[in-house]
C-alpha cells in the first residue's frame, strides 16, 4: 500500500478535525503531518514538510487556496480542494481533471479522492494540471480571456476571442480557430461549455458550442443556422432556438 504524507489547510477548526477523523477512520495509508489554520502557515508547512498530498480549503482569510498554490508553484504534490460552494471553481477543477470535496465531506468521496491522488502521484503531468487551473480561475467572474488546456507535456493556451466554435467528437472536441486553424482536444464539449458559458459562448446544438462574438448572420428556419467567421455554417437545434434568439438580443 502506497503511504501518503498529507497536510490539511483549513481555517475552520471543525473542518480540520472532521477531515482528520475521516482520514483516520477510512484511509489508513494517509498520515497527516500537520493541520494548518491559516494559509500562511500552510505555505510554511508545505515547504518544510514536503507532503505528497494537500487538502486545501478555498475560502480562507487573507489568501485563498488558489493564492496558496500560486506561492508554491511549481507544484510537486497532489491537491484535493475542499469547498462549501463556488460553482465556477468546481467547473474549473473538472476541466483541469482536479479533485475536490464538498463540505461536509462524505466518507466514500474522501476514500475515492485519496485513491485518485495515489493514482495521480504515479503519473506525470500533475504540475501542468494545476497551472492550467490557476490560469482558468484568475477571472473570478467566470469570464476567461485565455483558455489554458492541460496536456501530457505542458499547457496549450488559446485566446477565447480566437475560438470561433467548438464541435463535439465523442470524448474529444475540435476547436475551430481564426486563421482556418483547428485543434482536437481530449475534453468533452460539456467540459468546454461549463468553463466558457460565462465568456460569451452558447451551445446551439448538442454537438456545437459557438462564440457569439463570431456570428455573422442568422438564417431562420425550423431551428435555422448561423454563419460564423470564415464562413462556418452551424445548425441551431429547434429546442435551442428560443434561448439562442434571447442571447442574440443581448449582443
Strand content: 25-35%
End-to-end separation in angstroms reads 56 Å
Q: Which structural class do the helices and strands define?
A: alpha/beta
Give the helix proportion (percent range): 25-40%
Biggest sheet statistics:
5 strands, parallel
* H/E topology pattern: EHEHEHEHEHHEEEEEHEEEEEH
Anisotropy-based shape:
elongated
Uncertain spans: none
User: Rg from C-alpha positions?
Assistant: 21 Å
Question: Can you list the strand order of the major beta sheet?
Answer: 2-1-3-4-5
- How many E-type strands? 15
Average pLDDT, all residues: 90
Total of helices = 8
Keywords:
5-stranded parallel sheet, 15 strands, 251 residues, alpha/beta, 8 helices, 35% helix
Task: Give the SSE map.
Layout: E1 4-9, H1 13-26, E2 30-36, H2 39-49, E3 53-57, H3 65-72, E4 78-83, H4 87-95, E5 99-102, H5 107-121, H6 126-137, E6 146-151, E7 154-159, E8 163-169, E9 172-177, E10 181-185, H7 189-196, E11 201-205, E12 208-211, E13 215-219, E14 225-228, E15 232-235, H8 241-250
Parallel strand pairs: 1-2, 1-3, 3-4, 4-5
Antiparallel strand pairs: 6-7, 8-9, 8-12, 9-10, 11-12, 13-14, 14-15
Amino acid at each position: 500500500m502506497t503511504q501518503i504524507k498529507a497536510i490539511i489547510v483549513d481555517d475552520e477548526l471543525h473542518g480540520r478535525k472532521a477531515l482528520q477523523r475521516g482520514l483516520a477512520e477510512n484511509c489508513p495509508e494517509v498520515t497527516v503531518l500537520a493541520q494548518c489554520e491559516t494559509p500562511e502557515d500552510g505555505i510554511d508547512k508545505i515547504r518544510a514538510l514536503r507532503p505528497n498530498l494537500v487538502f486545501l480549503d478555498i475560502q480562507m482569510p487573507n489568501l485563498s487556496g488558489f493564492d496558496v498554490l500560486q506561492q508554491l508553484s511549481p507544484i510537486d504534490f497532489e491537491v484535493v480542494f475542499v469547498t462549501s460552494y463556488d460553482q465556477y471553481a468546481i467547473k474549473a477543477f473538472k476541466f483541469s481533471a482536479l479533485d475536490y470535496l464538498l463540505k461536509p465531506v462524505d466518507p466514500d468521496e474522501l476514500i475515492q479522492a485519496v485513491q485518485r491522488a495515489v493514482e495521480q502521484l504515479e503519473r506525470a503531468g500533475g504540475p501542468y494540471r494545476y497551472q492550467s487551473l490557476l490560469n482558468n480561475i484568475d477571472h473570478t467572474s467566470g469570464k476567461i480571456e485565455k483558455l489554458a488546456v492541460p496536456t501530457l507535456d505542458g499547457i496549450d493556451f488559446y485566446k477565447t476571442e480566437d475560438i470561433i466554435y467548438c464541435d463535439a467528437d465523442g470524448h474529444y472536441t475540435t476547436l475551430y480557430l481564426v486563421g482556418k486553424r483547428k485543434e482536437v482536444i481530449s475534453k468533452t464539449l460539456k467540459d468546454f461549455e461549463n468553463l466558457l458559458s460565462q465568456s460569451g459562448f452558447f451551445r446551439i446544438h448538442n454537438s456545437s458550442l459557438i462564440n457569439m462574438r463570431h456570428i455573422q448572420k442568422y438564417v431562420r428556419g425550423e431551428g435555422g443556422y448561423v454563419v460564423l467567421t470564415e464562413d462556418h455554417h452551424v445548425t441551431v437545434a429547434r429546442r435551442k432556438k428560443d434561448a439562442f434568439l434571447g442571447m442574440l438580443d443581448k449582443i
